[in-house]
Design brief:
Length: about 210
């Protein structure tokens, strides 16, 4: 496959930026608070249910929709409010330059809502690097690692999976990508490299150095 024919599919949180430091703890607290309010749970039970749905479905929202009839737009709006997102998004020096070195098309595929994803990309000053952002709304609320979300993305960008390289910090999502025929790059300090991972990198900045 010629480099110009490649489609790089990037996860957003904990792939293109460090969301675990500030963003994820805030969202997790807001999700727990949402469950406490709307499902009449105490904090411990709400936190346990949030984690259970995330582990089982890849997103807390999927479990809430499936088992509680939660309105996804209402949930996403109330759990992704930030007083100062700019202070929470950690910028990585050299990110734009790295993306510019990669030949081929580039898209973002995230389980986050569109409004949040666009704000983060703007804060990182890399929104212009991507031809499309595919969010949880774009998948009709079928988050990674669900196959259906991937299939909607492939249909939208009009390329076969074999032309795509998935860059992601989630092993379940990478497993689905590989089953569909994509190449896979695992962004993690984890030294494991399962058979469905083609390359593992500590940082996305090292991406241009690998042969894949």
């Amino acid at each position: 496959m010629a480099a110009s024919q490649r489609v790089w599919i990037f996860d957003l949180d904990d792939t293109l930026h460090n969301a675990s430091a500030h963003v994820f703890p805030h969202i997790n607290r807001e999700m727990t608070r949402y469950l406490m309010t709307h499902l009449d749970m105490d904090e411990h039970a709400a936190n346990q249910l949030r984690r259970h749905y995330w582990e089982r479905y890849g997103a807390t929202l999927h479990g809430l929709m499936r088992h509680h009839g939660t309105d996804p737009h209402h949930f996403l709006h109330h759990t992704h409010q930030f007083a100062d997102l700019s202070a929470m998004v950690l910028k990585t020096h050299g990110l734009r330059e790295m993306l510019a070195k990669l030949k081929g098309r580039k898209v973002v595929f995230t389980n986050a809502p569109m409004a949040y994803a666009l704000r983060v990309l703007d804060l990182l000053r890399i929104r212009h690097c991507f031809e499309r952002v595919f969010s949880i709304e774009s998948t009709r609320f079928q988050p990674k690692p669900a196959k259906s979300g991937f299939m909607r993305l492939l249909s939208e960008i009009k390329v076969p999976a074999t032309c795509c390289i998935m860059v992601e910090d989630s092993l379940p999502a990478l497993k689905t990508a590989r089953k569909l025929g994509m190449k896979t790059v695992y962004i993690s300090a984890d030294t494991r490299r399962p058979s469905f991972v083609d390359a593992r990198l500590d940082s996305v900045l090292a991406l241009p150095k690998i042969a894949i």
